[in-house]
Amino acid sequence: MLSRVFGFGRRSFSSLSEQEILALAISSEEDDARIYRSYAEGLQQSYPHSASMFEEMAAEEDKHRGMLIELHRARFGEHIPLIRREHVKGYYERKPDWLVRPLGIEKVRHQAEDMERQAQLFYIEAAKRTSDASTRKLLGDLAAAEQNHEDLARKLEQKYVPGDVREEEAATERRQFILTYVQPGLAGLMDGSVSTLAPIFAAAFATHDTWQTFLVGLSASIGAGISMGFTEAAHDDGKLSGRGSPLKRGLANGIMTALGGLGHALPYLITDFWTATSVAAVVVFFELWAIAFIQNRYMETPFLRAAFQVVLGGALVFAAGVLIGNA
Question: For residue 71, which of 133, 147, 122, 16 has the smallest C-alpha distance?
């Protein structure tokens, strides 16, 4: 870790020989081609047209690598020194493709643009440090090629991802986001916010003890979050339904369930009973309206209908809790 932060054991770019610069360029092109193919593989199932585009971009990087290898062979022979990005101070790094999963289509496109821009800057600086005419020419040509990759990417996108396909991919990405995160998270928020109203307010009005009420709310919220999270993760592996990773869905559901209950449990850390209860009631109001907003924003439920359903249900549960607590 310290070697990455402070550059211990790494070479400065200015200390590299021309052979080492060529070796670094070769390994960089290999890495970029591998990354593009990883993108293509990750996108293949949901975005096959964009996957084809990244396959062609990987093939372009292979061509660059071949040109660099031929130049190295002509100047320095068959042996290519092992030097990679992580061996050079200040050299741009690439995130492994597993760190950018799930492969959102826009995220990958922006990542590819950054890759091409960084490669262009490298070739410009590398060309400045070479005295051999053929090497300087090739590095300059590659810098221009990387600059033109933006045009290449645009042409490939027009070829593989025309307007209607892009809209279809955007719709697919939005649908996947809703199925994996929004839907289970919303279900958890509704369950956590509404189902814990009765026990928390029943405990509050039965005991008038804010600390005991907080403990009831804390246990109800955490318990509900664990139960809902495990249930969501266990009942559907996502392969047939297309709802995505069960772990991600379970976490979204469990965390939002717990937060939904904790929202109106935490005010009972206030020692004054009526102050705590008033704050909790205000929190409940905002929770219910947040649920209605999310339903309208992502689930396309008419706002007034969503608000009526959520507020009516919450009001009934709240009233039940108060009545039971005062019994």
Answer: 133
Q: Domain 2-161 is in which class?
A: mainly alpha
Q: Which residues pair with 11 in a beta bridge?
A: 88
Distance, in Å, from the CA atom of 103 to the CA atom of 109, rounded to the nearest integer, reads 10
10-residue averages of pLDDT along the chain (327 residues): 52 83 87 86 76 84 89 88 81 62 65 78 82 82 72 57 59 73 83 82 86 90 87 73 76 88 89 90 85 81 76 73 72
Structure-token match 């905002």, residue found: 286
The answer to whether the beta carbons of residues 267 and 280 sit under 8 Å apart is yes
The two structure tokens encoding residue 181:
């995160």
Neighbour tally for 309: CB within 10 Å: 16
Residue with tokens 């004054």: 272
Q: What is the DSSP letter of 180?
A: I
Is residue 261 within 8 Å of 193, Cβ to Cβ? yes
Residue type at position 260: G
**pTM score of the predicted model:** 0.53
- How far does the chain reach from its first CA to its final CA, in angstroms? 61
Tokens of 245: 């990773």
Question: Which ranges in the chain are annotated with CATH 1.20.1260.10?
Answer: 2-161
